[in-house]
Specification:
Chain lengths: ~210, ~210, ~210
């Protein structure tokens, strides 16, 4: 009983949000995997890579231990996502709204975590922005490569711009001496809003026309 | 003459098995490359990546020097595999049986090496199991991405389950204090048997059905 | 004014060449991206990865900080490449000749940089040759994977052989005690000439025929 209290005392609000974000990213990977007729193991791998791929590349580039090797919560979260998709697959079609929310919340938090890690290691601002963006987008890119598609982020969404702008906002607030919690919450909300607005109003980047 | 004796004295049984496993993995990559009309260089790259990709990702994640940068045996083994495929390509079709054996022996050994490395670095058991599995399967996944296919392991085989179960067996034996040689040989044989049995009896994981 | 003088004094001939090489590699990525109807962000990512992917994998394998995280010149160079392609896209078709030259100069320099880095870290000669080759070719490989094609280098070009031969030449000169500048310039010119000659005379490696 007391152990549970200690456990819950150590679970912060950010942990809860991060769990939801990981869950949403994993579910997005698992659903695409199921559309390609992958088996359970394949779906698990695609889900796990979608949720952790961006942070893993960031940590390898920064030369630190990949975050998911320190706590088992990301593996468990992916397993729970699998079970969830298996049980509720017929109903998930109607849940696209909530999932877009989860996914956007997760994106905001992933950007915050990525920017924070790079700032702590004293990298230049443009490296910090790249790390925030990599944390947000690379998982989905590897997901699409694994299922043999061109990354959706290259053609369909305003996703990456939300990550870049959010990272810049974080750096500006940090530079201006705004406290860490305010900076983090503002950035996460900002990314979340941009992402939702981009989806609702179909904001898109121009296509690069070219002739070979 | 004496130098050769010293050389052979330093070649252990595990080295021989590892060479055969690397050879079988490289040949599998080179044969798929030839089916896609790649040139010699492309075939070499695909063969080398099939044989070393899993261990390389493992070593990058663990933060140690990639194993194939320490001894040139893996490069030589891939070159020998190339020559072998070029000379015997018409006869290889009839050698699928022996190759399945090599491949399964190699898989068992790759899992043992991956688990051992992670255990030595004092990681938690679930990290150890992931490292054993990554060592066994990621080479084939990168192979399939390079030749522009969805990884075969996501749809066709019981391969990954053999790696996971073998890694768990290793950890259990290690926990119970079984000596290293016994643990390693048992694990390798176990993975080998599961893999062969899965192929013979067409064991498969269920497909994840989903609706987008 | 004085600052500019200091800036230019610190820009070496190699820096200029490296900038041109990065530019040519980025443009090649961005042009392929535009043929696949990617948006601006997608084109930027493909261009950046084409220019920096090989060096990044090399640095991760060698365990050093990826080169593009130390100076922002590679990000700027990719942005300039984007602007260049957007403005001149109708005229680029007629510039294939100059671009082949840039690309070949860049290739020569990338090989030199890769070999030098691995030599400085005291790796065995075959690791050094692999690092020079990886630096030259992996960016283009990742580019092709991102746009969902089999890497062109596996089927179409003598590209990789130029990298391997150039790396071997560098190591031989280094072994014979030739001074660094002479070794570097000779290697870069050698790779450049082999690459141009291979394109002009359609040198190709044999295709690996196989039966599955």
């Amino acid at each position: 009983m007391e152990q549970w209290l200690v456990f819950w005392k150590n679970v912060s609000f950010v942990d809860v949000i991060e769990f939801l974000g990981t869950f949403a990213f994993a579910v997005s990977g698992i659903r695409l995997a199921s559309a390609k007729k992958l088996d359970w193991f394949g779906a698990f791998v695609v889900g796990f890579v979608t949720a952790t791929g961006g942070g893993t590349l960031r940590d390898l580039l920064l030369g630190v231990v990949p975050f998911w090797m320190i706590s088992s919560v990301y593996v468990w979260c992916t397993i729970i996502s699998m079970v969830f998709v298996i049980i509720f697959r017929k109903k998930l079609v109607h849940l696209n709204g909530p999932f877009l929310w989860f996914d956007s919340i997760g994106l905001g938090l992933f950007v915050v975590v990525g920017v924070e890690k790079a700032l702590t290691l004293d990298y230049a601002i443009w490296v910090v922005v790249l790390m925030g963006t990599i944390t947000g987008i690379v998982g989905g890119m590897i997901r699409d490569i694994l299922i043999n598609e061109i990354p959706a982020i290259f053609t369909q969404e305003f996703y990456a711009v939300a990550c870049i702008l959010g990272s810049l906002l974080y750096c500006s607030f940090d530079y201006m001496g705004v406290s860490a919690p305010v900076t983090q919450v503002s950035t996460a909300i900002f990314v979340f809003v941009i992402r939702l607005a981009a989806t609702r109003y179909s904001w898109k980047l121009p296509v690069l026309k070219g002739e070979l």
